[in-house]
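pasting for ref
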Amino acid sequence: MSSSRIIRALMSLLACFAVFAALGSSATATTTAGASSEANAVSTAKSEGNARKGPVVLNVADYSVNYGGRFRLRGKSGRSVKGNIRIQSNNGHGWQTLRKVGTDGEGRYAVKVVARVNTALRAVAGDGHRSKIRRVAVIGQVRLDRPKRYVKLGQSLRVSGVVLPRGSRPIRLRVRGHGVVATRSRANGRFTLRFKPRSHGDFGYRVWALKNGLSTGDSSLARRFSALRPGHASYYGPGLYGNGVACGGTLTPTTRGVANKYLPCGTKVTLQYGGRTVVARVIDRGPYVAGRDWDLTEQTKKDLGFGGVGVVWTNK
């Protein structure tokens, strides 16, 4: 064999060794990269596992709140990192996000949401984990318009207002000792009731909105009105000033009061004449003219704009 052939054979053998070396290096690199990627995935999984320490928690301080008030909420996202959490509600029309609130480094949060209607609440973390559902109730409100304070027999007391949350619901007017008048609010929450008193006197009443799907039942503040009856009256005073009165004291031109044959001394009497209303006490006995119920002092007569003899309306 010639020397040139030997040299070519050696070069071919070296080329083969180079190819095998290159293939081995590539396989090693691939194996190393695969191992590195797998290690990174394991590390990320461990990191995420460490961040989520528990379930999403939603706590409610008050499960029933007046309409327009606020539900106080607090809890944890279950992750020991800062982030966001969504407070969602569902009142029968699907889940809607009310607020988005940030969490601290321990995943804690606190927020307040306005009480509008009965609803269900939940907290949703950024990774989709959800808290248990909390059901809360809104205490409805009944707001009355300014009512008439005095009603003459034969007329009706008109009571109007609005119920919140707004909507159609049963409404009741309860007059103490005189039963109940019922109606239903309109879609905008407005209502009107009428009560016709059967006797004179002073009466207390409330308006109730019954429970429905939007809120619990509730009532208005207590109100009062006076049902007035007609009575014949006269006045006295001139020529009698300086004299004593049956209930004690001395009659003067500035004494405000009324005389009546039967009511106890000191009884408060509401008197109405024309567009004026006066409250006076029984201070004397009389009148002793047939057909008359009241004798007004000079001061009471002036306060009412009363002429001298005529009809006044009273609650007694």
